[in-house]
Amino acid sequence: MYRTIRIEQWNRIRPVSNELHQPESTQQQNLLPQPRAELESFAQVFDGQPFWVYKDPLSLRYYRFNREEHFIIEQLRRGVTLEELKMAHQDEFDSGDLSNQEVGRFISSLTERNLLIMNQPNRDELLYQAAKKRRRTKLFGQFTNILFIKIPLYDPDKLFNRLIERLRFFWSRSFFLIYLFLLAAAVVLVIRRWHDFVSMSNTDFFTIYNMPILFLALWLVKALHEFGHGLTCKNYGGEVHELGLLILVFMPMLYCNISDSWTFPSKAHRLLTTAGGVLTELFVAALATVVWYYTEQPGFIHAFAFNVIIVCSISTVFFNVMPLMRFDGYYFLMDLIEVPNLRQKANTFMKDFFIRYILGGRSDDGPQEHRFQFVFPLFAVAAFIYRWFIMIVILFSIYAMLKQLHLVWLGRFFVLFTIVMSFLVPIVKTSVSLTKQRYALGISNIRLLILLAVLVVALAGVLFWPHHQHVTLNFVLEPTRIQWLRSEVDGIVHWDEQTHEGAWVDSRAPLVARLENTELPCEAARLTARIEQTKIEIAQWQNRDETQVEQLRRRLKTLLNDETRLKEQITGLEVKAPFTGEVLTLDQDINRMRGQYITRATPLLLLADTRQLTAKVWVPENTYARIFKHEGQTGQQAELMLYAFSRDRFEGSVGAVSLHREDNMGEFGEKLALSNKVGGEVLTEYDPIAEQEKPVETVYEVTIDLDSENLPASAQSFRPYMSGRARIDCGQYTLYQWGKDSLLRFISPEVRL
Q1: Which pTM does this prediction carry?
Q2: pLDDT at residue 391, as a whole number
Q3: Could you say which of 22, 113, 118, 581 would form a disulfide bridge with 609 (CB–CB 3.0 to 4.6 Å)?
Q4: Does residue 271 contact residue 332 with C-beta atoms inside 8 Å?
C-alpha cells in the first residue's frame, strides 16, 4: 500500500527545435559523449516489444528505452562520431536518417539525467539546473500534497539479505499450498462464527475505546506489508535501498522503495513483487482469524485479532487493491496489461481528446497506440472521481476530528488550503498553459467561445437549479407518555407479584407496589387520640373561658391538617399506576429494591406507554437555521430509519421544538446515542460529577411525530430508546444558497464581523 512511485522516463526520438551547437563538419570529427560506465541495463519484453531498463546505481533512478534508443546508447558506449552514429542507425533501421535535431534532443535528455560523460564547460551548469528543477518540482508537489509525505530513513538492503536466507521457504511451492489451505480455513472459521463477527463489527469496532487497538493493529499490519514487498523483491534478485516514514493523512506508516523490480525480466516476478504486500496481509489475516476463533470476548488478544482481520480486509480492498490510486493495485494493473505510466498515458489521452475534438486543435503528443487503448478514458475518468471521493472523505474526517479537539480554525484552514492547492491551482495552471499554447496548438477561437458559453450556462444551471435540502441527524425513540413512579413516603418496598420488567400495568389495577412503614399507623393513632382529647377540652371550657376555647380550636385545626397529611402519606404506601403502560425498569433493579428501606422521592420504576412512540432529535446550533427558517415553524417532513431495522423506512413530521438547550444526556443516559462518541453529531465530554456524558455545544431537542398510519410491519417490534437516522426536509434550496450559507458558517464570526 505504501510504496514510492516507480520512476521511469520515456525518451522518444522525435524532431525538436534544439540542435547541436556545432557545425556538422566539426561533429563528424569529434566523438559524441559516452554513457557512464557504471550504468546497468536489463532486457525486457513489454507488450511483445523489446525494451531495456537502465539503472543508475548512484541516484537509484530507472529509465526505460525502446530498441531504437537502446541501439543509439550502445553506439555511444563504443565511442562514435555523429556521422558514424547516423550511418550505423541507417544500416540497422529502415526508418530514415537521423537528423541533428533528433540526436541533439536525445543527448540533451541523457545529459540532464546525468547518464553521459560530458566534457563541455557548461556540463555542471546543465546538471545543476536539471537537479534544481527536479527539487523544485518535488518540493511543490510535497507542498500541494500535505496528506502524503515521505521521509527516507534507512537502507535495509543488508538487513533483507540476512533475512531472506532464513525466510526463503515462504516463496516456495510447498508454502504456497500451505498458504492456500490457511486462507480457506480462515474463511470457514469466519463463516462458522459469522454472527459473532457481525456483532463485533456493529458494536465494538466503531467506538472510541477501540481506537488504540485499531491504530496498533494498523501500524503493525502495514509494517509487515512493506516488509512483504521488500523481501519479495530481494527474493527475486532485486535491491532494496530505501525504507522510510510515510505520513499518510497525518498517520505515521512505513514505506519501502522496491523500484528495483523494474529490472526484473520476468513479468511474473514483477507482479509477485507488487502483490507481495497484499499477500502478506492476507496471510496475517488468516493467522489472526485462527486466533480470533479460538479466543473469547472480552480480551485484548481477541479484540486485537479482530482488528487485524478488519484492517487486512478493508484497507486492502479500498486502498491497496484498488487500481485507481497509486498503490499496489495500480502498479499491478500497469504490469498486467503492460502499459507503463498508465495514469500519465490516460491523462494525456484525455488531454489530446479534449484539444482535438472539443477545441478543434492539434496535440503535440503522438497517437496512443496500444491494444488496451480503450482502458485509457475509462481509467482517467474513474481515477479522477475516486481520487476526489477519497479526498472529500479524508477532509471531512480531519475537519470533524479537529472540531472535536476544539481546533475548528485549524480544520477550516486545512480544508481551504487543500482545496486551493489540489483543485484550483491545477485548473489555473492548465488554463494558463492552454492560453499560452493556443496558437501553437491551433485551437479554434469559435469553439473556445462556445465551450466557455456552455460552461457558464451549465455552471449557472447547477448553481441556481432548486432542489430539496435535507439535514441528517441521529434520533432516539421515546414513548409519548413516560413517568417515573417515585415513593411518596419512607418505607420498605414490597412489589406486587405482577410487577416485573416488560409487564403491562393497568391504571385500574389495585397496586404496583406497597410500602411498609409501621411508624405511620402508630403516629395516626396518637394523632387521633390527641384530636379526641382536644375536642373534650373544648367542650369543658365552653362558656367558661373564650380565650382558652379559641386556643384549643386553633390546636384542633392544626391537628386535623396533620391528620389529613398523615392519611395522604398512608395512602402513599400503596403505589398505583397513573396510566396504563409498560414497566421499563430492569428486573435486577426491581429485585435489588425488594425488601429495602427507601426514603421519600426515591425512583421506584419507569412506566411508559410504548404503544405510542416519538423520535427525539438534537439539533446543533449551527444547523438550527437550516431546519427552522422562521420562529414557530413546524411540520417539516422527515424520513426515518432505525439501525435495528435498516431495511425499513417510515415517515414523520416535526411536531415541537424545545425552548431551552439540553445540558445532559437524559435522566439515565438514554440520549447517549446522539453523542459523537457513538456515531451521533452532538459533541460531548464526560462529566465526572454527573458520571455521564454531557453536551459541550448548544443543542435543542426536536420532537418528530411518527405517521402511525404508514408504519412498517416491523413497527410492532420497535422498542423505546432504539436509535437511528432521521433525514429532515429543509425545503427548496439552490446550490448557490447552500454554498453561501456553508461558507458563512465555515468562516468564523470574528472574521465576518
Answers
A1: 0.65
A2: 84
A3: 581
A4: yes
* Strand 491-495 relative to strand 513-516, pairing: antiparallel
Nearest alpha carbon to residue 292 among 390, 221, 194: 194
Strands 574-575 and 513-516 come out as: antiparallel
Q: How many other C-beta atoms can be found within 10 angstroms of the C-beta atom of residue 294?
A: 11
Q: Which amino acid is at 321?
A: V
> What three-state secondary structure class fits 386?
helix
Burial status of residue 205 (CB atoms within 10 A of its CB: 0-12, 13-18, 19 or more) = middle
Q: 368, 345 in Cβ contact below 8 A?
A: yes
| Distance separating alpha carbons of residues 214 and 188, to the nearest angstrom | 24
How far apart are alpha carbons 683 and 622 in whole angstroms? 12
DSSP count for the chain of H helices, then E strands: 23, 24
Retrieve residue 424's grid coordinates: 484550483
Residue 88 to residue 82: CA distance in whole angstroms: 10
Split at pLDDT 50, 70, 90, the class of 587 is confident
pLDDT digits (tens, 9 = 90+) for 639-692: 999 988 888 899 999 999 988 888 888 777 788 888 877 778 788 888 888 778
Q: How many CB atoms lie within 10 A of CB 319?
A: 16
Q: Which grid coordinates belong to 357? A: 475534438
Contacts of 462 (CB under 8 A, 6+ apart): 735
Measured distance CA(482)–CA(608) in Å, rounded:
4
Grid cell at residue 280: 502478506
Amino acid letter, residue 182: L
Go through the chain and tell me how many residues it has.
753
What span, in angstroms and rounded, lies between the C-alpha atoms of 131 and 151? 19
End-to-end alpha carbon distance in the chain: 46
Tens digits of residue pLDDT in 727-737: 999 888 888 88
Q: How far is CA 746 from CA 464, 695, 701, 742, 749, in A?
A: 21, 21, 24, 6, 9
622 vs 516: CA distance, rounded Å: 53
State the Cα torsion 208-213-217-219 to the nearest 10°. Answer: 70
Looking at residue 709, what DSSP letter applies? G
Q: 451: Cβ–Cβ under 8 A, 6 or more apart, which residues?
A: 358, 359
Cell 484539444 appears where? Answer: 355
What cell numbers appear for 601 in the block? Answer: 422521592
Give the mean model confidence (pLDDT) for residues 682-708. 86
Residue 657 · residue 628 · CB < 8 Å: yes
CA-wise closest residue to 569 among 451, 473, 489, 638: 489
- Our CA dihedral for 740, 743, 745, 750, rounded to 10 degrees, sits at -120
Instruction: Please state the rounded mean pLDDT for residues 428-453.
Output: 81
* Per-residue burial over 698-735, b = 16 or more CB atoms within 10 Å of its CB, e = otherwise: ebbbbbbbbeeeebeeeeeebebbbbbbbebbbeeeeb
Residue identified by cell 530481494 is: 234
Instruction: Name residue 550's amino acid.
Output: E
C-alpha span between 631 and 23 (Å, rounded):
87
- Rounded to whole angstroms, the Cα distance separating 261 from 267 reads 10
Question: What is the C-alpha separation between 233 and 398, in angstroms, rounded?
Answer: 35
User: What's the number of CA atoms in the CB half-sphere (13 Å) around residue 580?
Assistant: 5
Distance CA 71, CA 148 (A): 39
State the chain's maximal CA–CA distance in angstroms. 156
3-state secondary structure of 479: strand
Which DSSP letter does residue 10 get? B
- Secondary structure of residue 721 in the 3-state scheme: coil
Contact 570, 520 (CB under 8 A): yes
